[in-house]
Amino acid sequence: MRIGMRNIKTGLSVFVCILISFIFNRDTYVVSSITAVFTLREDMYNTLRFGRHRVVGNVTGALFSIVAIFIFETFGNGKIVQLIAIPLLIVALIWFLSATKNYEGTVGGCATLLTILFMIPETQSYSYALARVVDSFIGMFVAFGINHLLPHPKNKIMKQAVDNFEKK
Fold first, then answer.
1. Do residues 102 and 1 make contact, with C-beta atoms less than 8 angstroms apart?
2. More confident residue, 46 or 109
3. Among the four 48, 96, 125, 164, which has the fewest Cβ within 10 Å?
4. pTM, whole model, 2 decimals?
C-alpha cells in the first residue's frame, strides 16, 4: 500500500498549521490542525465546499460558546448550570445548523462548542472563543492553499490535455 497525495497534503497542512502557530505565538494549534484535516479533500472543489461547511459550523459553535460563557457569567458555572446549559446549547446548535441546511457543519460546530467550553482558561472567555474562530480560518485557508499548490494529479493531466488541445 502506498502513501497517496491526499495523505501527504494532509500531513503538510498540519505541519503548516503548527508552524503558523509557532511563528505567531498562538495558544494552540489544535483547532487549526483539525480544521485543515477535515477541510482537505481529494480536489479543490470538494475542499472549498467542505471548508465552507466546516467554517460555518465552527463559527456557529464559537458563537454558541459565547452564549454559554454569558450564561455561566450570569448564573455561575456550577455543575447544575453546566448539566442543563451545555446539552440545551448542543440541541439548539444542531437545530440551527439543520434549519440553515448546513448539515455537514454540525459535527464541527458541536466539537468547537465543546472544545471551547472544556478547554477555556479561567483568565480568558470571549477572547478564547474568538481565537478559536481565527484558528478555524487558519486551518481552512491552509487546506485551500495546500490543495491549490499541490492539485490532484488527474487535474494536472486534464489541464495538460486541454492546453495541448488548444495549441493545435
1. no
2. 109
3. 164
4. 0.76
